[in-house]
Structure to design on (233 residues):
């Protein structure tokens, strides 16, 4: 089974430029996440989609970040304009939801991420 | 406010010995806990999980223990192998349906020395 695909793997841009990341989740996974991971920290949730609707974007810096998930499959995350502090790995994940003794559980499957360097 | 804490940023263990990675949490509403492993330049991969109704879950060399009264869980790797060298993240889940939240620790970097 194919995993979560992300591109590009690496991106170097100058501050104030724009950048876009692409994610193709595992087939059949309804929930898609974008995380930002700064070196030495845990993943920070940016946005969560359920099919093509936004469930949680409370930590997305909406003045510069935007994301969409057209048709409930692929997703893109955009930063415009980029700042130095946006340098991080951007991880996309999709999730498998299952029942365990009548409780909903969820396992996330991550892509390899995009390493963004803003100079 | 860090709801999931991994207080040891790094751990070094000899090959063949036991590795014990610890995780503490503050929210008693967490009901499902997961451990993820991350190699450099790769995304985290799921390792093992435990529900709050259990106190132990074992999968091969990996065992997770949950102490609800202490709000503490630990991941044991026995025996440790050099290929286990990675960053290990503890994550805790709460909520149901679209209100599910997954909270991550900062990670512990494990080095297994040959």
């Amino acid at each position: 089974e194919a995993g979560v695909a992300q591109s590009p793997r690496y991106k170097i841009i100058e501050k104030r430029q724009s950048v876009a990341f692409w994610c193709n989740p595992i087939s059949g996974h309804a929930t898609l996440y974008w995380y930002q991971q700064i070196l030495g920290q845990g993943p920070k949730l940016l946005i969560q989609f359920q099919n093509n609707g936004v469930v949680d974007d409370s930590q997305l810096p909406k003045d510069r970040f935007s994301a969409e998930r057209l048709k409930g499959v692929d997703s893109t995350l955009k930063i415009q304009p980029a700042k130095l502090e946006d340098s991080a790995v951007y991880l996309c994940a999709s999730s498998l939801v299952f029942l365990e003794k009548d409780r909903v559980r969820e396992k996330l499957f991550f892509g390899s991420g995009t390493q963004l360097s803003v100079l | 406010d860090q709801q999931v804490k991994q207080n040891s940023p790094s751990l070094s263990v000899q090959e063949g010995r036991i590795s014990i990675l610890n995780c503490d949490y503050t929210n008693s509403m967490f009901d499902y806990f997961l451990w993820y492993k991350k190699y450099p330049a790769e995304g985290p991969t799921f390792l093992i999980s435990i529900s709050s109704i259990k106190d132990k879950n074992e999968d091969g060399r990996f065992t997770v223990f949950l102490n609800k009264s202490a709000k503490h869980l630990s991941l044991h790797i026995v025996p440790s192998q050099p290929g286990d060298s990675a960053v290990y993240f503890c994550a805790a889940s709460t909520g149901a349906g679209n209100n599910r939240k997954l909270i991550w620790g900062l990670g512990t970097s494990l080095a297994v020395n040959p």
Observations:
- Chain A has no helices and eleven strands.
